[in-house]
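The pair is listed for reference:
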Amino acid sequence: MGGTLAGGAASVYNYRMNLSYRIGYVFLRNLYSYKRFIVPTFLVSLVEPVFYLVTFGVGMGAYVGYFGGKPYLHFLVPGVLASSVMLSSTFECLYGTFVKMVHEKIYDSLIATPVSAEDAVAGDIAWGTFRGLISGTLMMAVAIAMGVFPVSVASLLLVLLLMVFIGVLFSSLAMIVTSFSPSFDFFNYYTELVITPMLFFSGVFFPLDKFPAWMKTLADFLPLTHAVKISRAVFTGEYHAGLVKNFLVILILETIAFSIAIRTMKKRLIK
């Protein structure tokens, strides 16, 4: 894994992206478009955290009992928080980007202006990150309403910052998939074979120390695992040296994925 990451990092270094402040224009274009659907989107985004936290945290928590001397809901919230950002960012840069690229032809219009292909793609990754941040913030608001708080204001701010890193990572990964997708059906391979297993094997719902050894090894290769570990530590204020490794994995994968996403989408947009 180390060799792969090093090779990817070298590739990132050797590739120069034509990025500029116009990324902000692409982001603002998405924001203005989003305002038309803000109420239904907000309601849908609010239902998801309520469903997860009530169904799993309260319902299952009544049977599971305590984790580390605290109710199961306290264990669940940090993991669900990270997974919520992952899911929202992923779906925005899968289906949302595909619609804008293939059906609405928005990318064609953007790159006909001074906005470069790199700016257009990076702007959409930023937008996917923002959508993930919205979902994560709503999830946190529901959790706080249910009595689960970060240990301090500093922890709250760090959790929000972590959401940004998670959003960029999974938005970039989703953008890579979109760059090769011929249709909506293609996304099923990624969501069913990658995202869904990651949701259940990354320690979101249960501690990884109860998993078999081979499953722990598998989980260590999943980016969500590292995000969940950091989220749980920051949320509870229980820091340890292993978090440095977790953060570096996210940062390196994020850098590589972002660079690859820019290049593969540019190849699809400019033929």
